[in-house]
Amino acid sequence: MTECLQGLRIALLAADGVGQTELDWSGDAVRRAGAQTQLLSLRAGQIESLDEDLDPSRVYTVDRAVADASADDYEALLLLPGMVRSHQLSSHDSVVSFVGDFISLGKPVGVVCHGTWTLLEAGVARGRSLPSYLTIRSLRQTGASILDGEPASPHALRAFYSTIVEEFARLSKQLAPASYGESADPSAWLACD
């Protein structure tokens, strides 16, 4: 993959209980495309991932607490709450505010697994097409439409992350003048092959 996200700063927002595969693959996908990532969580320190949603797995060092971060610091956000403890993110005011700020600024937000709950809490799900498990019925009740097919399926994460990279490149291109100023040359990250 070309470095179509070269120079972009992407926040990876996760908490204890995030799926190891989701965190590893999402970070790898955007970094391979040239982005810089920072792992954000509810607090500084470390978070522990889960393997298969149950078994303790890798420990990750958090780069920054979400309460100390601003949507202005990043060009895109990947929301990775995991399944078992997804409520940790969606019930935390600083997370809901942070995600809402990304949406308000028109910045791209990628959502994995139960991350859609945080979009519900932020009041930004209406009118959006979102990946989801069938068990999250409240999405339809808010006016969101549910994506179906390979890119949205949790069983097809590689295709999903390829789509995320393409969308981040496409949507970030629209933000280039505001994010980088007139003198910046964003051409290095504008097109994915």
TrEMBL record:
Coiled coil: none annotated. Residues 9-148 form the DJ-1/PfpI domain. SUPFAM superfamilies: Class I glutamine amidotransferase-like. It holds the Pfam family DJ-1_PfpI. InterPro entries: C56_PfpI-like, Class_I_gatase-like, DJ-1/PfpI. Belongs to the peptidase C56 family. This is DJ-1/PfpI domain-containing protein. It comes from Mycolicibacterium vulneris.
